[in-house]
Amino acid sequence: MLLLTIVAGLAVVTTLLILFAPYIRKYASGGVCTSTSRLDGKTVLITGANTGIGKETARDLTMRGARVIMACRDVEKGEEAAASIRAADPKAQLEVRRLDLADTCSIRAFAKEFLRDFDHLHILINNAGVMMCPYTKTADGFEMHIGVNHLGHFLLTYLLIGLLKRSAPARIVVVSSLAHYFGWIRFHDLHSQGSYNGGLAYCQSKVANLLFARELAQRLKGTNVTVNALHPGTVNSDLTRHSTLMMIFMSLFSIFIKTPREGAQTTIYCAVAEELHSVSGKYFSDCAPASVAPQGRNDQTAKRLWDVSCELLGIEWE
Ligand SMILES: NC(=O)C1=CN([C@@H]2O[C@H](COP(=O)(O)OP(=O)(O)OC[C@H]3O[C@@H](n4cnc5c(N)ncnc54)[C@H](OP(=O)(O)O)[C@@H]3O)[C@@H](O)[C@H]2O)C=CC1
Ligand SMILES: CC1=C(/C=C/C(C)=C/C=C/C(C)=C/C=O)C(C)(C)CCC1
């Protein structure tokens, strides 16, 4: 009898899911960037553009006329992604360059060549990310999540900020996550040497993204360079590659989860929306303002993280 009830229940749920699938999909796909802004003559740099949200952002921005530099740690994968975008749009202006955010030498080499080859940078999209990887260190000894997701992008932005200012109006877009709600900055053990949990290390790095955007927005006041952060939604991408459980969840519940193209909408919105022309230091989700957890909007923590980051990277950023 119990078995029969369970089977009947499952059948009802499955039937409802099938019947309402188009509506569920439409709701889950989230906000859409409706801006028709063109980017002709503009130069855009996207980190981690060979797959997922970064690749779809590159596709959209080239279609708006931008010249897009895809900064990828694996150039071969980057070229494959560029070829697939060009296959649909032969006029796409794309260039793949090598950037490994887990190595400050690679970041410095990338920036040096970028500054040599480009006179302008109008939009910088700090998109690349790792999630829940086993405990690993970057070439400079930083824990991988804080090293790639925060410190790598911190250094890249520092090296390119002069060019962004000279190219103003310019925008910096920081891809953070709702996961910041579950993280906090562990100044006493930033690199998780005492104890390590991949999920918490990821969440910490996503709070760091928000605090960085917040502090940077303060420092960029009056420069006509804006910086905003965002949550792309829950997106079916390679991000979950280190967690079998997450991959299973993503497959089982794929109807509730965004495709990479849907997940790129808020990034695109932050990069092009006319109404954000002078908006800075804000956080968006589904192409609309969203609320930040208290640990992501604490000015003292933001300043402290800024100083610690400069010290770790051996830089002075006034
Ligand atoms: N997917 C989701 O549900 C969510 C994603 N986000 C954020 O969105 C952003 C994009 O993620 P998503 O597209 O989903 O994930 P993907 O794994 O599909 O893409 C991540 C990109 O980052 C690149 N990357 C990783 N490590 C490095 C490195 N050391 N140097 C340079 N590039 C690197 C990857 O390169 P490679 O392919 O070579 O590994 C890849 O191109 C991330 O910042 C993530 O935190 C936020 C909330 C939810
Ligand atoms: C558990 C669970 C889900 C899966 C959530 C996942 C897989 C979230 C992934 C978040 C990521 C990757 C965040 C990155 O910053 C659903 C299907 C939403 C609803 C049912 C309960």
From TrEMBL:
Transmembrane segments: none annotated. The keyword Oxidoreductase applies. Pathway: Cofactor metabolism; retinol metabolism. Keywords: Lipid metabolism, NADP, Oxidoreductase. It catalyses: all-trans-retinol + NADP(+) = all-trans-retinal + NADPH + H(+). It holds the Pfam family adh_short. GO terms for molecular function: all-trans-retinol dehydrogenase (NADP+) activity. Signal peptide: none annotated. Its EC number is 1.1.1.300. Belongs to the short-chain dehydrogenases/reductases (SDR) family. PANTHER family: PHOSPHATIDYLINOSITOL-GLYCAN BIOSYNTHESIS CLASS F PROTEIN-RELATED (PTHR43157), RETINOL DEHYDROGENASE 12 (PTHR43157:SF32). This is NADP-retinol dehydrogenase. It comes from Cynoglossus semilaevis. The lineage of its organism: Eukaryota, Metazoa, Chordata, Craniata, Vertebrata.
